[in-house]
Amino acid sequence: MAGQMVEFRSNGGTTSAYLATPAAGKGPGVLVIQEWWGLVGHIKKVCDRFAAEGFSALAPDMYHGKTASEPDEAGKLFMALNIGQAEKDLRGAATYLLARSSTKKLGAVGFCMGGQLALYAATLNPSVGACVNFYGIHPNVKPDYSKLSGPVLGLFAEKDTFVTPKVADEATAAIRAAGKQADHHIYPNADHAFFNDERSDVYDKAAADDAWRRTLAFFRQHLK
What pLDDT was estimated at residue 224? Predict the structure, then answer.
């Protein structure tokens, strides 16, 4: 891993996070929000990939030290997420990252649960100027789209039974109805979590590579 574990202030307490920075020392800041497994190696590697592309990437530990390797266990952590604490963590993470960003606007990107939390972060922090949502889902996280400060790019999968193409269409329509900019792309024959290269059951290299290209281009366009 190229990055390091750090601590940031979160409403009187502290929360851990993984920070990866570019060789230049500072780049446009991107919040990277975990899947339901927790702050695992895959998410840290995504931060490292952002750093290699010139970004400062921070992944807050939304489960505060807990991780899961089995779906049942992950589902319990997912449903037990304290939304009030998550809000504080996302605000604290954005404040911490702003001091390490070369731009006044941050990006937020998340996967599965993290996709919904990235949208939420973008409504909580005016400093988040662009959001990429990879097949985001969490029944208890309800972002107020009218508070978005920048555009949203959604990346979804045709065979996803959690976040179906219909759900993807409805999410984009709801953001646009709130007067905000949103577009999305649905990858044919891909499944939920197609970006996770540590899950051979669902990983789709072609879709993942294209989604990564779109994500980098989106942030480079909007994080100035």
Answer: 85
